[in-house]
Design a protein that fits this description.
6 helices, alpha+beta, single chain, 15-stranded antiparallel beta sheet, 274 residues
């Protein structure tokens, strides 16, 4: 008799736990759309085990590919003898590389943008470099945290020049660049006159939530990050629970979709406003 009671209790406990786990994973109640700290999403994003390859489309037309590559930097042994025990690794920061290839129909639309960012363990940036490549021209912008100077370098064939700017200089960047401003990519050139670093500090507002994303006929749990830039432009990014970028909806009907999910769709909310 005691054995039957014990078996019944164990079976009931197992059934209850499975029901609770199922509701936590697949439930559609209010908790599935609960807000979560943005730090939680950033931690998953920077520690993602795989990089993300996204197809870039504008109004349904393919424009190119974007590779999102996060890596964790680790301590190196001081010598060959001082080897850390297996599994004992100390992270010293993060590297984030973005490689955007735009393959336009004409040479003027073919761009490659390389972004390299170094962050510390608190996710505070230490160094940033951005390269704009359009043969035979190349722009490079570099900055370091704690250094007020921003370096801009331009190369075209055998000719090159380099200029160092301070935050005060950036407010008059168009006048300082002079004739070189015409060589900038269109979006940068058109906004030089309104560039004010003081306004950029709080330019982005974002929130993160648990949400759902439709892949084929299935729905999977994801993180949904909604961002507002300069109070006008909105974007939505969906990430897997492991931190891989699945989809990004940006203003002007720009859509980035993970190439590993050809049947990716979305019924988790409206598209962002342009």
């Amino acid at each position: 008799m005691a054995a039957r009671i014990f078996l019944t209790l164990v079976t009931a406990f197992w059934l209850v736990m499975n029901v609770l786990l199922w509701r936590a994973e697949f439930g559609h109640g209010p908790d599935s759309l609960s807000e979560i700290p943005i730090e939680t999403v950033l931690d998953r994003l920077l520690n993602a085990p795989d990089h993300s390859v996204l197809v870039v489309r504008h109004r349904g037309t393919p424009l190119g590919l974007l590779r999102w590559i996060p890596t964790v930097t680790e301590t190196q042994p001081a010598s060959e003898e001082s080897v850390a025990p297996e599994g004992m690794v100390t992270a010293t920061g993060y590297n984030l590389d973005v490689d955007l290839n735009l393959t336009g129909g004409v040479p003027s639309d073919r761009w490659r943008v390389l972004v390299h960012t170094e962050l510390d363990t608190n996710r505070v940036w230490r160094e940033l470099s951005i390269r704009f490549l359009q043969r035979p021209s190349a722009w490079e912008i570099t900055a370091r945290n704690g250094d007020d100077r921003i370096r801009v370098r331009f190369e075209e064939g055998k000719s090159s020049w380099e200029q160092v700017f301070t935050p005060r200089d950036l407010q008059q960047a168009g006048a300082l660049l002079g004739p070189y401003a015409a060589l900038l990519p269109g979006p940068l050139k058109s906004n030089l006159g309104d560039l004010d670093p003081a306004l950029l500090r709080n330019a982005i507002r974002w929130e993160a939530r648990n949400d759902w994303l439709k892949v084929g006929r299935n729905r999977v749990r994801v993180f949904r990050v909604h961002a507002t830039v300069l109070g006008r432009y909105e974007g939505v990014v969906y990430l897997s629970r492991a931190g891989e970028v699945l989809q990004a909806k940006l203003p002007d009907n720009l859509l980035l979709s993970n190439e590993a999910l050809p049947l990716l769709g979305n019924d988790a909310g409206p598209a962002p406003r342009p």
